[in-house]
Amino acid sequence: MEEVKRFNVRVYGWLTHPDLGVLTSVEKIQGRIYRKFPGGGLELGEGIRDCLQREFMEELDLPVRAGAHLYTTDFFQRSAFRPNEQVISIYMQAIPDKGSNERIGKLKAVEKDHRVEWISLHNFHEDLFDLPTDRAFAQLMTEQK
User: Fold this and answer.
1) Residue 23 domain boundaries
2) With helix as H, strand as E and coil as C, how does the chain read?
3) What number of other Cβ atoms are within 10 A of residue 1's Cβ?
4) Residue 98 belongs to a domain with what CATH number?
5) Within a domain: residue 90?
6) Is 1 among the domain residues?
7) Number of structural domains, the chain?
8) 64-111 residue pLDDT tens
């Protein structure tokens, strides 16, 4: 196995709606389909709140503000896509801007090979997710509901 040489910091959003459930993103990455939380990579010189806002705009054209910090991975995770990187995932509450409420139910992914899916809170569980950090966060959120 390749030696880990760098960190890859990821920032993801937990966006819920009382009627729709939890927002998830289904993406084709390197030829495989993954269900994950909306978000992505932290850029140099960027704060995690700014990253969350940028990623929601890039992926969903949805202005949000970052709410509470919910979880940061507390275990070692090698990147599934770059074996020489350690992934650190940060999960935050994503709060839509007030003017966006009417758009929530009609969200569509902006990027090719992506789609948006809402999971009802009743059906929400960690086995729906493909990446280990997302599964750990989903398990934590399931235990809290």
Assistant:
1) 6-144
2) CCCCCEEEEEEEEECEECCCEEEEEEEEECCEEEEECCEEECCCCCCHHHHHHHHHHHHHCCCEEEEEEEEECCCCCECCCCCCEEEEEEEEEEEECHHHHHHHHHCCCCCCCEEEEEECCCCCCHHHCCCHHHHHHHHHHHHHC
3) 6
4) 3.90.79.10
5) yes
6) no
7) 1
8) 999 999 999 999 999 988 999 999 999 999 999 987 877 888 888 888
